[in-house]
């Protein structure tokens, strides 16, 4: 079942989501993210994540850009450090 490489099946972005790296903590449940589509966005940490998931600078997250305001987004998922390293190795994330 498990192979030697230790590769995990990670959650991949849906059609409306993009990978992003947290670059700055802004406070008030907001962070600055650098998205893999080349844009800088202000991302919101939704209420259901605030208490359960700790988000820090340099974390790899999935964001869902807003339809009506492209420079803003909602964070939908945060990757663990080893998962983020795997995404970098597979070329999904460029630094």
TrEMBL record:
SMART domains for this protein: eIF1a (SM00652)
Pfam families in UniProt: eIF-1a (PF01176)
GO terms of molecular function: RNA binding; translation initiation factor activity
Occurrences of domain S1-like (ranges): 6-80
Domain of life: Archaea
Keyword Oxidoreductase attached: no
PANTHER family in the record: EIF-1A
Protein name per the record: Translation initiation factor 1A
Taxonomic source organism: Halapricum salinum
Gene that encodes it: eif1A
């Amino acid at each position: 079942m498990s192979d030697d490489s230790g590769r995990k099946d990670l959650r991949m972005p849906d059609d409306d989501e993009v990978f992003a790296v947290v670059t700055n903590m802004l406070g008030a449940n907001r962070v600055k993210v650098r998205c893999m589509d080349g844009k800088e966005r202000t991302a919101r940490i939704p209420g259901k994540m605030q208490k359960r998931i700790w988000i820090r600078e340099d974390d790899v997250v999935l964001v869902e850009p807003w339809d009506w305001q492209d420079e803003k987004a909602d964070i939908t998922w945060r990757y663990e450090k080893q998962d983020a390293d795997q995404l970098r190795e597979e070329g999904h994330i460029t630094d």
